[in-house]
User: What shape does this take?
Amino acid sequence: AQSVTQLDSHVSVSEGTPVLLRCNYSSSYSPSLFWYVQHPNKGLQLLLKYTSAATLVKGINGFEAEFKKSETSFHLTKPSAHMSDAAEYFCVVSGIPLGAGGTSYGKLTFGQGTILTVHP
Amino acid sequence: DADVTQTPRNRITKTGKRIMLECSQTKGHDRMYWYRQDPGLGLRLIYYSFDVKDINKGEISDGYSVSRQAQAKFSLSLESAIPNQTALYFCATSDHSGFGMRDTQYFGPGTRLTVL
Assistant: This one.
């Protein structure tokens, strides 16, 4: 089985201050982990992904996340928030294979989402 | 992502009506997916297709059907819409990179469906 828990449904920060969005996961497999962002009335955009290479992953727009296996966490951070960062963020785990043999792929399990608000 | 398009973007319909949501992609990916998003629940998989001849049910397929008309097109149908199918629907694609569990999915802009 696999699951994702985003520990905060809402996070509010001031512009220029650090951002921390927390994510814990569980997986019976060696997982891939992703962060997606969804701006209002927009689709999901991939921010970054972890696929068993470096544990510190850098993404777009200054975001990064660190995979910590011992803590089963994949928290998203940014040193300095911008107004344009206001959006909903989803932590996603991919681990359970679907399909048989060569057609398998990792089923995505989404967290419930964290809404980030950035104040001037 | 402009490479994955969905039509319509918004739709309001009545209970019992048949509805089709369409997805097209120019990424050249073999794999396509349909998800629905409900507040507080994240995204849940409805159907997925690894190629034109391979279609599979996801975790919440009841009340839905799909058609993979071509590599680039994947349609989702609600044969008889009901109010609890009101949601935001996303299409996604991924490439079969040969390392299946690492596939990255790319999402369309979504279709907001309201069933009255």
Observations:
- Chain B touches chain A at residues 1, 4, 31, 40-45, 48, 50, 54, 56, 90, 92, 94, 96, 100-110 (CB under 8 Å).
- The mean pLDDT of chain B is 90.
- The radius of gyration of chain B is 13 Å.
